[in-house]
């Protein structure tokens, strides 16, 4: 069974899935922003299943990224009811991005997943330390974090995940040319081979480029 960390009472009442396409003004992306296939992940930095899937997605991008056909969009879905530290960790990643863009964002979450024991066990004193290790201005980072600069964005992202059908983490949407593919909403830490199979099927169905 695919692992997922669930939060109760979050199913959309009408059963609909409202998948938002990639928006460069709001999202963080690894890979080609114009890639026809985008894997959109809603995740919680204290979720052990997300930690595993993060490694899987790096494998996916190692395989597909150079060809520019697949990109990875990461969105926040902190389950604060079980991981009280996750929202602040998500804010910290946004504070990193404010200084260094998408590259700093992904480098920051890479490091958080690397050092956290998961399940709400990261020492939050590590957040500015990680910023420093990545060469960010720690004073600027701390002000951003202490001011709650991105708290509203994190809350909005959580709510968006619920509307999109998320009931736990990780929750993944596979989109082709900004449209959710049939069966493309995936719950849980999908294995690498499964992700390859899904992506290959989507790529095969795309119109041939001129």
Structure description:
With 210 residues, the protein is α+β, with helices and mostly antiparallel strands. The protein has a single domain (26-203), classed as Glutaredoxin, CATH 3.40.30. The protein has six helices and seven strands. It has helices at 48-64, 86-115, 126-133, 138-146, 151-163, 192-205; strands spanning 5-6, 28-31, 37-43, 70-76, 168-169, 171-176, 179-187. The strands form two sheets. It has a five-stranded mixed β-sheet. A two-stranded antiparallel ribbon has the order 1-5. Helix 1 (48-64) links the parallel strand 3 and strand 4 (70-76). The protein is globular and about 50 Å long.
Kindly list the characteristics that best describe this protein:
210 residues; alpha+beta; Glutaredoxin; 5-stranded mixed beta sheet; two-stranded antiparallel sheet; 6 helices; globular
At the fourth CATH level, what is the homologous superfamily?
Glutaredoxin
- Low-confidence stretches at least 5 residues in length (pLDDT < 50)? 7-15
Distance between the termini: 41 Å
Return the CATH class.
Alpha Beta
Here the CATH topology equals Glutaredoxin
The oligomeric state is: single chain
The overall pLDDT average reads 93
Helical stretch tally:
6
Largest sheet: 5 strands, mixed
Radius of gyration: 16 Å
Number of E-type strands:
7
**Strand pairing plus helix content: what structural class?**
alpha+beta
H/E topology pattern: EEEHEHHHHEEEH
Shape: globular
* Helix percentage range: 40-55%
- The largest sheet has its strands arranged as 2-4-3-6-7
CATH A-level architecture: 3-Layer(aba) Sandwich
Query: How many independent structural domains?
Result: 1
């Amino acid at each position: 069974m695919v692992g997922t960390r669930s939060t109760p009472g979050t199913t959309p009442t009408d059963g609909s899935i409202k998948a938002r396409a990639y928006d460069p003004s709001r999202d963080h992306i690894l890979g080609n922003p114009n890639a026809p296939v985008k894997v959109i992940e809603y995740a919680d930095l204290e979720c052990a299943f997300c930690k595993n899937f993060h490694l899987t997605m790096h494998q996916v991008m190692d395989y597909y990224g150079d060809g520019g056909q697949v990109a990875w969009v990461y969105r926040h879905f902190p389950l604060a009811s079980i991981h009280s530290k996750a929202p602040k960790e998500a804010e910290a990643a946004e504070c990193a991005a404010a200084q260094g863009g998408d590259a700093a964002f992904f480098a920051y979450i890479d490091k958080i997943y690397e050092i956290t024991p998961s399940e709400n066990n990261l020492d939050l004193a590590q957040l500015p330390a990680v910023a420093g290790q990545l060469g960010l201005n720690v004073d600027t980072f701390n002000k951003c974090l202490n001011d709650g600069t991105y708290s509203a964005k994190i809350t909005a992202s959580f709510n968006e995940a619920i509307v999109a059908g998320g009931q736990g983490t990780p929750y993944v949407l596979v989109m082709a040319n900004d449209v959710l593919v049939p069966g493309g909403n995936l719950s849980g830490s999908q294995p690498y081979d499964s992700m390859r199979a899904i992506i290959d099927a989507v790529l095969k169905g795309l119109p041939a480029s001129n």
